[in-house]
Amino acid sequence: MTITTTQALTLEEFLKLPETKPSLEYINGEIIPKSMPKGRHSRLQGKLCDAINQIAEEPKIAYAFPELRCSFGEHSIIPDVAVFEWKRIPLTVDGQVPDNFELPPDWTIEILSPEQKPNKVIGNILYCLKFGSRLGWFIDPDDLSILVFLPEQQPELFQDKGILPEIDLALTVNQVFSWLKME
Question: Which of 41, 59, 81, 129 has the most other CB atoms within 10 Å of its CB?
Answer without folding.
Answer: 81
